[in-house]
Task: inverse folding
């Protein structure tokens, strides 16, 4: 049943504007079922490395983490769509694309990475529980569509096309 819904969503994205797909490189979200709106890179307020001293002292037998804080309490780009559809064109592949649920802490939006958690499908090393599974559909010109497998609950998210610095933030209301 879920696969049928995903196929319908990917198909509706195609019917809702792929003939009007953006020609410029970027990451876009479908707004209102008719308009592709570019997601801008998320402004980073700062980063903090935690546990590095212990990692070095232990000879690498512990983990360290990099916490990245994004500016603002909420992303500027908002949607009520639980299955937002994304169109991507640029120097990255569907294998590079991740959606990460951000942690909200005292009015701050945080992501955490750890080199120990890095893998072929999660190169930055985000915690597995923060990742959103995606379905993608590649086009002949190298661009592709992406949609979450499951409905996104309300919250703050980061769409990543490589490392954390490539992230584009959005919120689901």
Result:
């Amino acid at each position: 049943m879920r696969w049928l819904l995903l196929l319908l969503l990917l198909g509706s994205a195609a019917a809702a504007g792929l003939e009007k797909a953006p020609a410029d490189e970027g990451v876009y979200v479908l707004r209102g079922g008719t308009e592709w709106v570019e997601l801008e890179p998320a402004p980073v307020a700062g980063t903090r490395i935690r546990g590095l001293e212990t990692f070095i002292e232990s000879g690498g037998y512990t983990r360290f983490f990099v916490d990245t804080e994004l500016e603002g309490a909420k992303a500027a780009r908002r949607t009520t769509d639980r299955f937002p559809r994304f169109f991507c064109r640029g120097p990255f592949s569907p294998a590079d694309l991740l959606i990460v649920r951000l942690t909200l802490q005292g009015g701050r939006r945080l992501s955490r990475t750890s080199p120990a958690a890095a893998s072929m499908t999660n190169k930055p090393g985000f915690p597995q529980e923060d990742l959103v599974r995606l379905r993608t559909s590649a086009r002949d010109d190298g661009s592709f569509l992406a949609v979450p497998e499951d409905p996104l609950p309300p919250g703050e998210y980061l769409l990543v096309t490589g490392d954390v610095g490539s992230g584009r933030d959005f919120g689901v209301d």
Notes: The two ends are 25 Å apart (CA to CA).
